[in-house]
Amino acid sequence: MRIDKRSYSQIEKALSSIDLPISVYTASGEQVFPSTPVEVREEEIASLKWEGGYARLGSMKLFKLSVRGMVVGVPDYVPVGEQILQMAGAMLTMLLRAVDRDMDRDEVLRKVLLDGLDGTELESIVPEFGLDLERPRCAVLFQSVGEAQEVESTLREVFSGSANDMVVSVGRNSTVLLRSMESTHYDELKELVMAVMETAYEETGAKLMAGIGEMQSTLGRMSVSLREARRAMEIGRTFRPGSRVYSYRELLIERFMCEIPQDLARRYYEVLFNKKNARIFNEEMVQTIDKLFECHLNVSEAARQLYIHRNTLVYRLDKVQRVTGLDLRAFDDAITFKMLRMLGRVNDGQKNA
Fold first, then answer.
1. What is the DSSP string of 110-132?
2. What is the percent of the chain where pLDDT is above 90?
């Protein structure tokens, strides 16, 4: 039986701070701790004769745990070796049972998130798994290319010090963070998500995208927050393809656009973006307009970032105004242009729904 990464991490964390030569093995003889081999030959453990939970192998005294059949050992020269083995065994038993309990808890959380488990059934489970039913949380959906197992392990390690945050896998490449929001604002949450994604990339090389749902007041409502997080990613990738983190509440206009019927959206889009105007909206002009919007309609700053003279930018904007009647330096006209342009992506956004 090979041990999972999370159990290994918890064992290493617990025993590294103890200045004693304790070794830990799985039931099949795989050495778990320390990471460097010691004098015991691992393959011999399975063939030992156990009496009262104890056995000997060379100069090592071993003790078998009641959970997972795991084994702890100390060399004979360690004073009060049996007491140390009992102490280490009790500590590891509690630790591994907590890990196993968390694994069972993950199944419950998946039911909450994917099946909408709520009401009396959820309330009956809360005491057994130590789940806080009333804490306000946000669902953050992380998606990676390929398997997300290493990403999930990294997220668990990042949030291992928080009793109020929970991490659970919901698919082959999808992991959800249920983030407690009692002392966190949305802007802080977005910064945290970006930092976590950087950590995951450094640890695993995985490139992630994330969607952030709205805060919900109970655990049973987390399925709603997850749907919002998933929807934020779907709409965000359509309207803001250059981003990596998409927040449901920051996509209000885009969500509104996706509610517009496709035929109506196409009709208004073609008022501006049609064959007659196609020549003016070449790649250079589109880049110019995008940069102007990025610079909040500041013509001088946009020209500086485009490495062109201000008069050149003004000439291009005048050309757009002559053809379309919209002066993109004016706020109202700029909003009109931006919304009509967004309507061209409504079809893609609705396909992703």
1. HHHHHH---HHHHHHHHHHHT--
2. 38
Looking at the domain 132-254, which fold is it?
A: Alpha-Beta Plaits (3.30.70)
Distance CA 110, CA 79 (A): 47
pLDDT higher than threshold 70 for residue 41: no
- Written as one string, the DSSP assignment of 261-275 is -HHHHHHHHHHHSST
Query: In whole angstroms, what is the distance from residue 13 CA to residue 221 CA?
Result: 34
Mean pLDDT of the region 196-216: 90
CATH 1.10.10.10 is the classification of domain 260-351: no
Average pLDDT over residues 294-321: 95
Q: Which residue has the tokens 């517009």?
A: 260
Number of Cα atoms under 13 Å in the Cβ half of residue 317: 25
Cα separations (Å) of 351 from 225, 317, 339, 343? 21, 33, 19, 14
- Domain edges within the chain: 5-99, 132-254, 260-351
Distance (Å, whole) CA 164 – CA 182: 10
